[in-house]
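hiii, so i know i said id send this last week but things got crazy w the move. better late than never?? heres the sequnce for the chain we talked about at the cafe, plus the structure i predicted for it. fair warning i was half asleep when i ran it
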Amino acid sequence: LELPAGFNPRTLALAQQLKQPQAADSVGAVLRLFHDQQYEYTLEPPLLGRDAVDDFLFGSKAGFCEHYAGAFVVLMRAMGIPARVVTGYQGGELNPVDGYLTVRQSDAHAWAEVWLAGSGWRRIDPTGAVAPERIRSNLAGALPSSGPFGLGPLIDLQHHPDSWLAQLRFGVGAMNNAWNQWVLDYNPDRQRSFLEELGGAFGNGRTLAGLSAIAVLLLWWRRRHASPVPDPLDRLYTEFCRLQARHGMARAPDEGPQHYATRLRGLAASAAQQAAREEFLMLYGALKYGRVAPDARPASLRTLQHLLSLCR
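okay and structure toks below
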């Protein structure tokens, strides 16, 4: 609850204006402030003065995660709500080639925790109210494209996992990781021991066992990386979302069918198309998350297929 005396008087006054009877409501009021007052996420904010939080909240309104976490905690403490800044890493990139997760310095992040009676410490990320794409994806998704010699679009391309540039980067990263794992981190004694064991296995009666083990590993690898048969329901939903994205209304990664249906009402369409969209999403939600008799599923899938054709 501690705050330095004699600093940020405007922030302290704002905290009393936003304070609600319930601590959770006070948290929501501050998050709405960040969301509604057109604050900006940037890695190049202007310099702040002695009353840094006042300058940020009422002046620049531009900053990165530490600015928002710090200002949020000051407001919470001024309301009498225990709060603290937490720093660490958020995100990372999974390499589909070898399955290793890469966490970079650009994934460094700051958020907050507040103490709520009956719940204890609860994680709150104020940055999500300003730049939700920073939380959903990574730093690159929250900032505009930039690069020397007009290479911003090319730099952006590498962050799309299905692009050729990303696939090339994944391949190089997997080779680099294999080099680190099997060469740089493999000291001479371990290498020698491995080669002696391998030579001994193939130099005596254990050759057949060694070949069998390799065959089993290859079979396991093939089955592990075999493409799964797509579920017909998921395939129809993916096609529906792809169709709406072509009309300029892509589904957010964390958006459910009901919320998506509400947002799609703002998309220009005929009455028949709008009705087909809403009926499609309602039926999909029932099949995906509700309890539908197995014998009714085939007919429901055919209905979904028909509704999808009406949405085109």
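btw The mean pLDDT is 84. thought thatd interest u
miss u guys!!
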